[in-house]
Amino acid sequence: MSERIFYTLPRECSKSRYELNLNDKQAWLESDLDFVSNQCAQDYWDNHDGWESTWPLEISIFETETAEAPIATYIVDMEMEPSFSSSVKAESKEH
C-alpha cells in the first residue's frame, strides 16, 4: 500500500511542501531515513525542476502534511555520471 510523506527544501522554497508516495511508509521512516531523503531528492529532481537548483540541497522530511516539526533534515548531494558521445571529424576519415 502506498502512503504519503512530505518534504520541504527550506533554502529553495520554504513555503512549498512536496508530497511523495512510499510503500510501507512506517517501515522506511523507522529504518532508513537516508533512503527516504534520497527518494525525496529524486522526486524533486524529476518532478519539481530540481535540475535548476544548485546542489547539495537541504531536505526536511515530515510525516504528515500539517506537521510543524520535521522528522529529520538531510543535506543531499547529487552525483553526476558523465556520458560521452563522439563522431569522426571529416578530415580524419581517411585514417
Strand-helix topology:
Elements lengths: L1 E8 H4 E10 L1 H7 L1 H15 L9 E6 L9 E5 L19
Antiparallel strand pairs: 1-2, 1-3, 3-4
Feature tags:
4 strands, alpha+beta, four-stranded antiparallel sheet, 3 helices, 95 residues
Structure write-up:
The protein is of the alpha+beta class and 95 residues long. The chain has one domain. The chain is built from 3 helices and 4 strands. The model has no long low-confidence stretch (mean pLDDT 87).
Short description:
By secondary structure, the protein is an alpha+beta fold.
Secondary-structure element order, N to C: EHEHHEE
How many beta-strand segments? 4
Major sheet characteristics: 4 strands, antiparallel
Give helix % range: 25-40%
* Order of strands across the main sheet: 2-1-3-4
Distance between the termini: 60 Å
Note the overall shape: elongated
Total of domains: 1
